[in-house]
Amino acid sequence: MTFSIAGFCRETGQFGTAISSSSICVASRCPFIAPSKGVVLTQNVTNPVLGQLGVQWLEEGLDAEGVLARMIEHEEYPEWRQLQVLDAQGRSAVHSGDETLGIHATHQGHDCVAGGNMLANEDVIRAMVKAFEAHDGELAERLLAAMDAGLAAGGEMGPVYSAGLKVTDKASWPVVDLRVDWHIAPLSELRMVWENYLPQRDTYVLRATRPDQSPSYGVPGDER
């Protein structure tokens, strides 16, 4: 039903996650990020509350193992949940309950963690981590490369229809928060959206912090 990866860039301090699924709107309920603190992914039969709580506990200073333990303790149905946590030190923790669907796997890498269920094969997740670790470039590019590698290794057993990319930086909000829903090739579409958004990303941050220095919107009626 879902495969995903969370990553941390030590050079920039960015945290991010990319995800894809046969379900619609996967990015609305599975990935959660605490800026400068870490990432929580809650998937399989998803409980978004776990993502909200996980972010809260990361912000309180718990490490990945501590957050995961609390999530499992809090959850009434942990056997149905698949969880990945990445903390501010790049450490990770994973959980796949006994009711995780189909072929499923998790893999912890250097400053990253990936997981999935209803996979074509277990190698999908290892391929994602390997691609993330090997790829140069900024965090969003590495996350997308990991998703491409997972898809090339087999992806889900069936077609995927939704995907998302989220990255936090120094701002308190995600500087990248892109979604594709109910599309025949959501990961290809997500890359297209990313490539069009990237040249404007820093300008949107500047508009929030220094609107007097931001360029025009480039649309009719805004001739500054």
Features:
single chain; 224 residues; alpha+beta; four-stranded antiparallel sheet; 28% strand; six-stranded antiparallel sheet; Glutamine Phosphoribosylpyrophosphate, subunit 1, domain 1
Explain how this protein is built.
The chain is α+β, with helices and mostly antiparallel strands and 224 residues long. It has one domain: Glutamine Phosphoribosylpyrophosphate, subunit 1, domain 1. 33% of the residues lie in helices and 28% in strands. The protein has helices at residues 48-59, 64-74, 123-134, 139-152, 186-209, and strands spanning 2-8, 15-21, 31-34, 38-44, 81-87, 92-96, 105-109, 112-117, 162-168, 174-180. The strands form two sheets. It has a six-stranded antiparallel sheet with strand order 7-8-1-2-9-10, covered by helices on one side. Strands 3-4-5-6 form a four-stranded antiparallel sheet, with helices on one face. A hairpin with a 4-residue loop joins strand 5 and strand 6. Helix 1 packs across helix 2 and helix 3 packs antiparallel against helix 4 (139-152). It is globular and about 60 Å long. The mean pLDDT is 96.
